[in-house]
Inverse folding.
């Protein structure tokens, strides 16, 4: 038995203005048979007739809407293509040198450069999340929920950009629940006076002033090590380069 579909299509090669697509019984399965907008004949087999009908219906709709060739690009776009384009656009980002470049290496090793983007599903990215939870970081430490979230956020951002760059139609992250782990960011407590004294006594002389500055100001290590005299004036430390890229001022006691 042969099912025949005929639709008016204006932009096919040749003089014919009609588009024919068929479904044929082939052995124990079914085969779809049609010519794409470039005139190339396409045939594909399915085990079940309903699957053949669904796929052919989708392709016929795309051709009728003039979107078929755009969608076909997805079949040729590899994960390696996305990695290269993402690195090219974000290599100067501050977080790229400290974290993202390691994430991209992990993604490449796990998914493979030659893997087609359309073959990466929600199940695959969810499995990857569980995979990295069981493996140590590049520093050899156990992964925290925050560490897992940062890596998964990077992967999600990559696929978001892939959609915007017309490399794939939809992101696999859109197919299921959020893969971000709920973090417990509650501050447990502050050091007691006794603990502060012991900490400072345990520090070598070159480190004691740095730790003391951190205890009194709450500044990050990079902020302290990059501190210059001109940033200290009128009883404040003025920070322009911060993690959040927002300037802030820290009051201090001037002797």
């Amino acid at each position: 038995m042969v099912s025949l579909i005929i639709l008016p299509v204006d932009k096919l090669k040749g003089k014919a203005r009609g588009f024919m697509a068929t479904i044929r019984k082939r052995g124990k399965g079914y085969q779809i048979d049609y010519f794409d907008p470039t005139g190339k004949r396409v045939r594909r087999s399915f085990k079940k007739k309903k699957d053949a009908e669904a796929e052919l219906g989708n392709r016929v709709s795309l051709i009728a809407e003039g979107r078929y060739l755009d969608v076909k690009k997805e079949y040729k776009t590899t994960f390696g293509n996305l990695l290269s384009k993402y690195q090219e656009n974000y290599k100067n980002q501050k977080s790229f040198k400290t974290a993202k470049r390691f994430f991209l290496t992990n993604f490449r090793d796990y998914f493979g450069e030659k893997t087609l983007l359309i073959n990466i599903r929600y199940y695959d990215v969810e499995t990857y999340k569980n995979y990295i939870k069981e493996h140590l970081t590049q520093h050899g430490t156990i992964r925290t929920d925050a560490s897992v979230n940062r890596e998964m956020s990077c992967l999600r951002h990559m696929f978001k950009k892939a959609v915007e760059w017309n490399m794939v139609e939809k992101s696999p992250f859109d197919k299921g629940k959020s893969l971000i782990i709920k973090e417990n960011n509650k501050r447990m407590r502050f050091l007691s006076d006794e603990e502060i004294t012991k900490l400072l006594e345990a520090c070598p002389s070159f480190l004691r002033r740095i730790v003391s500055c951190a205890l009194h100001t709450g500044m990050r290590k990079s902020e302290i090590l990059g501190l210059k005299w001109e940033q200290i004036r009128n009883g404040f430390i003025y920070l322009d380069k911060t993690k959040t890229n927002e300037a802030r001022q820290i009051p201090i006691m001037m002797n």
